[in-house]
Every structure is written in C-alpha cells, then in structure tokens.
Model the fold of this input.
Amino acid sequence: MMAIKVSEIHIYPVKSCKGIALSSAWLDARGLRFDREWMIIDDHNRFMTQRNNPTMALIETALSNTGLRLTLPDSSFVDISLTLPPIDQRIVEVWGDQCQAIDQGEAAAQFLSQFLEKPCRLVRMAATWVRTVDQNFAPPGSQTAFSDGYPLLGISEASLADFNARLPQPVPMNRFRPNLVFSGSDAYAEDRWHTVRVGEIVFRGVKRCSRCRITSVNQSTGEFTSNLVLDTLAEYRKIDRGLVFGQNLVHVGSGQVHLGAPVQVIVESDLP
Done:
C-alpha cells in the first residue's frame, strides 16, 4: 500500500462561504486556526448556510495579518479588521447551541445583506467562548468554532474516486468541504480511523459525517444542482442513520499540519 499523506488542507473562515487552500495550518483549541471563526446570521441571530442560501458559495474569503477580506463575483469587497474591539456582543445560535459572538460592523452587514438579498450580519466567535463538541462522540474538552458539530473533517482521495465512479459526471472534492484530504489510502479507510497521527498531531475519528443538501450546491456557480449526490450516497452509504461521507475528527493538543505530512494509523475501529 502507498504511504498515506495529507494532500490538501482547507479552512473556511466564514461558515458556508468559499474556503482557502493552505500549504500548512496551525491547530488551536477549536481546530484549524480561523476555520469557521466567522458566521453570517439572519435578523433573528440564527446561522445562515448554503442549505437555504446557495449563493454564499460565491463569497470568497482571504486572510492577511491584519484582516479578513470578503470578495463577491463582481470583485467588490469589504475588509474586516482582526482587531475589532468587542463592543457589540450578541448571543447567536448555531444548531441549537447558543454562542457569544462579536458583531463585525455595519459595512460588512450592508455588504452581505445586499448580496444575499436579505437582512444579515457578520459575527465572529468571542475569543473566550468555549463551544464544546458532543460528548457522546468526542473526548471531554473537545471544542469547535461555528462548524456544524466537529472541528475537522477528513476525506480520502480514494473515497471521492470511488464515489465518482458511480456518477455519470464526477464532482469535485469541494462539494464535501473537507479540512484535510488524504492520498494513498483505500476508499473509505477513514471510516475506521479511531486514532491517527498526522505529522506530530494526534487525531481521533469520532463520527462519520452525515451529508446534507449542501453537497448539491455547485461551489463554482452557487446554484443547486440535482439531488444526484445524495441519491447516490443513499444507494450504498446509508449508515449511522444518515448518508455518510468523510470522517469527523478531533485533535489532541496543538501544533501545525503540513501538506505532505505522513499519516500513521495507530488504532482502527471495527466499524463495518
């Protein structure tokens, strides 16, 4: 078998917006640094995603040492400082969790509201806030930012290749929005990864990822396509009361992960 390595690293600074491909990334308590640290909320302080707002896929994100930039398809952009004072604090909701967040100002709110054609605001998770991961699956103390539920998602290239072999036309990996992509493994090997070492960082596979209708959004056009992705998963990946693809991961400790980092499977589970 080929050596398993990290072939892609992605963060998604704003939940449900376009991601950023990296050559390396730091892991802090919540996961990959800046991953889903920001979120767009509606006028009821509830999270917004591509599930109901597919054009969010077209909002590009970029990070510098001083700020976050959001850019639209027409090249208009807005800059948000990384050092905004925590003046306008509010409680926001993501999947039933109440979280303390910092509003990112009127310019960002107007910019996004005009593009998405509905009132919305951009918020950032408060630096001191702790959002714990479901303790039924993850080790005690595991945290995440504004992800759906877990700090990282890992998928192997072989899994996507096997899935695409079942489709009339292949779909890219970005339909599944992973943080870490792995080369050199068998298809769906990540399903059975209980404990793996990636470079110097230990990860635990805690739960296969149940997929939703975001997999039907073309990430290049911001439009819903057919339900073929979910329909195909339903034919052979209906497991754990969901249509699963990829493995949710939590990390032990902090450190850095790099492209090309070797992956050592320490403990495999006996999942089917």
Summary: Residues 133-268 form a domain with the M1 Pyruvate Kinase; Domain 3 fold (CATH 2.40.33.20). The helical segments are 106-116, 157-164, 228-236.
